[in-house]
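Re-run with default settings, no changes from the original entry. Doing this only to confirm the output is reproducible before filing.
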Amino acid sequence: CEAHYRPLGPSDAVPTEPVSVAVALADKIDMLTGFWAIDEKPTGSKDPYALRRAALGVVRLVSVNELRIPLVSVLVAAIKNIEETTGELSVSGEGPAPDPARIVDHITRDLLAFFHDRLKVHLRDEGLRHDVIDAVLAMPGSDDLVLVVKRARALSNFLKTDDGENLLLGFKRANNILTQAEEADGVEYSFGADPKFAEDPTEKALFAALDAAEKTIAPAMATEEFETAMAAMAALRAPIDAFFDTVQVNTDNQTIRRNRLNLLSRIRAICLSVADLTRIEG
């Protein structure tokens, strides 16, 4: 009974006994979904029902106990239970929702974003930047907070290295050139890069490096070996740098130009399979 109130704040002890954890989570999630269901949320500095503290409590309970909980499923079940009990849900001053399915989805997404905000606050003391967390929150599985934290820590450590910093620059350069070309040409360069059109040795080396990276990164991400995926991505730094140092992407030969733009698309796709690097500042 005592433990289910915990944690009461950012420095309070987190329950670890299974029954205490279950009841503490149920209590906090029930309270949060109940207030969201009547559109009663914190505004600015006003939080009379300590909903931010409750959400932080969920974040800490899940993180400390490494609970692989799909929050979306839990929230949807809780909100639907409220709907069945009360007969109505409200959102943004609209009163009873005309479309229950739409309103359940809206409340779920809004509440998940609230949990993500609390997670950022929680991880700030670890030195994890908000943009790094945003980069992993944009990936699938963002309602699994333990998975988000694992990805964020790996990405943060990677970006602190020279390879990580320089690869980020290479990615941004590739993405900028590609985006500008796609906007100017009105097409999407996302398929068809062929090594037979590679003219420069650095171009051929980049094809080989991307092939090797793909073979490592995809299975590593699937098994949550994020450090392995980051190491494979780091290996792209040198061939990407060499490519940009020696090759002109927007050449007059349209066949070669298209092929090189599609090659840049492969760089973008591989990097985005690890994290949304477009969200990283600087």
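The radius of gyration is 23 Å. The chain has eleven helices and no strands.
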